[in-house]
Amino acid sequence: MCAGLVLSLTALACTGEVGDAEDFPGAGTAGQFGVAGSSSAGNGATGSGGSEAFGGSGNTAGVGNAGNGGDGGSGNTGNAGSGNTGNGGSGNTGNGGSTASGGTAGSASGGAGNGGSGNAGGGGTGNTSNGGTGGTGNGGTGNTGNGGSGGGSTQPGVVGVNGVTAWDALSSTEKAKVNGFRSFFLHQSVGQDLEDGVEANGFRFEYCTSGSTSLAQGLNGGLFSTSNGNPSAKISEFRSLALNNAGNLRVAIMKFGYADIVEGKAAGAQTAYQSAVADIKAAGVRVLHVTPPFVYNVPAENSTKMNTRTWMIQTFPGDVIFDLEDLESTEPGNGSRCTRGGYWEICNSVRSTSGCPSNGQGVDAPSGQGHICYNPHAMRIGKALLYAIYLAGN
């Protein structure tokens, strides 16, 4: 393990970022849980003979006996635990009873799935058959049936503000799964705010460096040796750590610093990052993406970070994306968006100030930085990061 480097690198982590520009972007939040589809009964009032049949619940609605229009089957509420396609329990054949003589085929609505697909957290739409209306499944994750990031396992979606309550909704057994596989998280100072928040929720990153070749089971985290403002070198470290541990690593995570994603550097960072992700995936390792962090009171910088967030969501639609930008720029008290000059920014209530400081990164300057207040905001945001890791690894 990396124990021998802990003291020296920890000291670096605590001092390297107070005056630097730093790290994250995101995606839309998940919708609400879908409403189970209902089926309209066939009329069958003038039907001749035969008993009235009720379509079975589930994927195939029952077919009424000839002569009487059967009632369309009601689609089961989708279980996001298997919402790989987001069509949770949709009534694939929404045929009510056949209309032999006057009966009206019932229209079956597909049951609403708790899973669903979509980058912005929208659940997948159910299939429509013979008048049946596909159920729409907003909310759940597809993997576990808990509300949160939206999207089934093939398009797990974006984890932002919704990830906080989604993590809280998991059982202790499900939460423990983040330690059931190996992951690593490379970052700089805002990343340490996130690590502190995760630790406040009872989970700990084992310290490692980008040169580690023996990662611990569960969560691993550490600092880039590269300084902020050099995204290409950070990406090289990220690729090396993932490939050197590909034999038993499940999830690789890196976070750009807010000094990395600025005008003149963002385009090159995107190209290099996409290439590294392709190499890492080819080695059988999953990648959890992190939108770059905002700064306070510098709209021109934040516009570039927002553009990178959009690029990330569009470029990696099938991957889990931890939307730090969404979390940083949402006012916790009322859910409103913190903006300046037409662009999102880290909320003043969320950033590190004398009244609400970071746990180890000091108090931010009036402009140009974006460290996170530890209690309660890093603690709250840490839940969403844990949930994103949980989704990426399961």
Description of the structure:
The protein is an alpha/beta fold and 394 residues long. It folds into two domains: 3-27 and 157-393; 37-138, no CATH class. 27% of the residues lie in helices and 7% in strands. The longest helix has 20 residues, at 374-393. Residues 1-155 have low confidence and may be disordered.
Helix and strand arrangement:
Layout: H1 6-15, E1 158-159, H2 162-169, H3 172-175, E2 183-187, H4 189-200, E3 206-207, E4 219-223, H5 231-244, E5 251-254, H6 266-282, E6 286-290, H7 299-315, E7 321-322, H8 324-328, E8 339-340, E9 343-344, H9 374-393
Parallel strand pairs: 1-7, 2-4, 2-5, 3-4, 5-6, 6-7
Antiparallel strand pairs: 8-9
Salient structural properties:
single chain, 394 residues, alpha/beta, 7-stranded parallel sheet, two-stranded antiparallel ribbon, 27% helix, globular, disordered N terminus
